[in-house]
Amino acid sequence: TPNADQANYDGDDEGDACDDDDDNDGVRDSRDNYPYSNTREYFNFGDCDLDIENQFSRNGSTMVDQINSLIEEINEQYDGENWDELHSDFMRELAKLTYMWRKDRLITRSERSAISSCGRNSEIPYLDIN
């Protein structure tokens, strides 16, 4: 039964209750690590205004999904005294992510460099990102 008030995350013809791919990334929600991918057009973090296009990467995730997951993982380990260690971990994992994006031709060499510079100057841990 059609329900005009039903949530419809991706704005397609199917409400979320009937939609087996709520974010329209081609990966069924039952197999999607990010069934409600962050699909905003560009991504930025910290004080950086990167304006790099947020694209779908691998396994039904967007670049923003992957950055958010990394930041969340690092922040969960923060105990108030291990900032340097975790910031190094963040930078290492960020380098792996951007290497994969570059390899997949989602970003340019200069965009990878800009992301790295942003990460280096960020307050991660502990930075809230949406």
The total tally of domains equals 2
Element order: H for helix, E for strand: EEHHH
Strand content: under 5%
How far from one another are the termini?
A: 34 Å
Strand count, sense and barrel status of the largest sheet are:
2 strands, antiparallel
The number of distinct β-strands equals 2
Low-confidence stretches: none
Number of alpha- plus pi-helical segments:
3
Write up this protein.
Residues 10-24 have a biased composition (Acidic residues). This is Thrombospondin type 3 repeat-containing protein. It comes from Lutibacter flavus. InterPro entries: Thrombospondin_3-like_rpt (IPR003367), TSP_type-3_rpt (IPR028974). Residues 1-35 are annotated as: Disordered. The protein has 130 residues and is mainly α. It folds into two domains: 1-36, no CATH class; 38-120, no CATH class. It is 37% helix and 3% strand. It is built from three helices and two strands. It has helices at residues 63-77, 83-103, 109-120, and strands at 42-43, 52-53. A two-stranded antiparallel sheet has the order 1-2. A hairpin with an 8-residue loop joins strand 1 (42-43) and strand 2 (52-53). Helix 2 (83-103) packs antiparallel against helix 3. The longest helix is centred in the last third of the chain and has 21 residues, at 83-103. The termini are far apart.
List keywords for this structure.
130 residues; mainly alpha; 2 domains; two-stranded antiparallel sheet; 3 helices
